[in-house]
Amino acid sequence: MLMKLATSLLFLLLLTLNLAHAEHAKFLAFPEGFKWCVATSAHQIEGYNTESDWWDWEQIPGKIKNGETSGAACDHWNRVPQDTLLIKNLGVKQYRFSVEWAKIEPREGQWDFEAILHYQLEILALRAAGIEPMITLHHFTFPRWLREKGGWEWEGTPEAFAAYAEKVYTLIGALGVRDWITINEPMVHLVLGYLSGMEPPGYADIKKVAAPLRGMLLSHAAAYRRLHRLAQENGRDIRVGVAHHLRVFDPHSKINPLDRYLAAKFDEIFNWGFDEPLTTGRMKIKIPFTIHVDERLPGIVGTQDFIGVNYYTRDIIKFALKKPLPAEMLVKEGAATTDVGWEIYPKGFYRMLRAVAERHPGVPIVITENGTADSRDAFRGEFLKDHLAQLHRAIHEGIPVEGYCHWSLMDNFEWIYGFEPRFGLYSVDYATQKRTLRESGRLYQQISRENGFWR
Ligand code: GAL
Questions:
Q1: Contact by Cβ (8 Å): 372, 379
Q2: Strand intervals (E) in 139-273
Q3: How high is the pLDDT of residue 112?
Q4: Does domain 33-248+270-312+343-448 have CATH number 3.90.1150.10?
Q5: Mutate which of 369, 409, 411 to test ligand 1's pocket (most atoms within 8 Å of Cβ)?
Q6: Cβ of 188 below 6 Å from ligand 1
Q7: What is the C-alpha to C-alpha distance for residues 438 and 379, in angstroms, rounded to an integer?
Q8: DSSP-derived secondary structure letter, 31
Q9: What per-residue confidence (pLDDT) applies to 30?
């Protein structure tokens, strides 16, 4: 009797809990026409980018984890039709990818029409599948010849970049590309290539960052103007922006003025060091006793039609006298982290979107990257939902986010980490090049098809 009563009570309790949950479960609907999207970059998936500076970098022993090189990567160059079907299968509306400058212009002024034809076919395949292409012109890599001339430091680079943008626009983009990214994550590129020396060109001198930053700003603006002039000439509507990598920088101690000062400095320089000059026309980097740059640059203001946001994580900043800058970047104690040790911090997504909206009221925002390294697909699904819930909150509060590109369509060559980190909605078996949709990929498919999810 007692047993029966206990079972009934337990049953009732479970029912109430379940009902309470059901009552609270809400469908987070995204605005009509919201653009679900997936992202990749050429060097990371295509294979054999042999005329590029990254190819050379990978051959230097010790530069890439486990001595790996990009090699055939995901062999995407030979699998565009099949991979386009994988994108279509996810139900997304847009695909963000980069075209490879080193393949299109392998030697100065020499255009490779086979490579151009290849990208034309890629655009046509995407359009035939009903997927809108978004093109990135520079995603970390340079043609070797341009690197040898000095990369972003060479004064001829802005014109060379605009000429390359023009070729891509007239021969590839005119087949139906509306959204353009000039440069992917300029500040990441600057930090890893010119400050830590971990990526090409491998410099590590903070005093020398002004030249490449100036070069990137002028090149971006030159390409922006060129693309718009061409589009205007043939009556097309295009939008050009930058994919900014935004991270939350929080002080280790909220009451330590040095931690607070340094966290604010990291935010100012890393998050807004490229964006601010495009708003004010002035390139400024000021770190006491270290670097002082304040320079007016012509023609760069107002060259973002939308703000591209790549969001992944947060860093905790602590004053440390013995370190350069002098600060330490830490991971929040006790926080959940990804396979590459980055804190999983969904709320930061919302915080960064608020920050963008405050700086650029009313300007459209596109999430150009967000995702996680998770080889076992153990937490990517939750990561996705937690981040999308924060994005939904931002949109609900009126922040004009128009689309979300998940990084990445499939596992790929993750730069200095080699092939180990797995960011894909599809896993890739590199021995056979077989792609398999992960459980989290199925979830993303459902979210994009239903334009929202239950929470
Ligand atoms: C971004 C970068 C991508 C990809 C991703 C994951 O910073 O744009 O190329 O590597 O991070 O780490």
A1: yes
A2: 179-184, 239-251
A3: 98
A4: no
A5: 369
A6: yes
A7: 12
A8: P
A9: 98
- The pair of three-digit structure tokens given for residue 59, joined into one six-digit string: 């051959």
pLDDT digits (tens, 9 = 90+) for 386-415: 999 999 999 999 999 999 999 999 999 999
Query: What is the rounded distance in angstroms from the CA atom of residue 399 to the CA atom of residue 419?
Result: 36
Handedness of CA 74, 80, 81, 83 (dihedral sign): positive
Arithmetic mean of pLDDT, 362-372 = 99
Q: What is the mean pLDDT of the chain?
A: 95
pTM over 0.90: yes
Residues forming a β-bridge with 134: 96, 179
Chain position carrying tokens 């007016």: 296
Cα angle value 180/181/182 (rounded, 5°)? 115
User: What's residue 324's pLDDT?
Assistant: 77
> What is the C-alpha to C-alpha distance for residues 106 and 96, in angstroms, rounded to an integer?
23
**Residues written for the chain:** 455
Both tokens of residue 249?
Answer: 């920088």
Q: Where are the beta strands (DSSP E) in 165-234?
A: 179-184
Q: What are the pLDDT digits (tens) for 338-351?
A: 999 999 999 999 99
Q: Is any atom of ligand 1 closer than 6 Å to the C-beta of 97?
A: no
Instruction: Spell out the domain ranges in the chain.
Output: 33-248+270-312+343-448
Confirm if 440 and 381 have CB atoms less than 8 A apart: yes
Q: Is the CB of 245 under 6 A from ligand 1?
A: yes
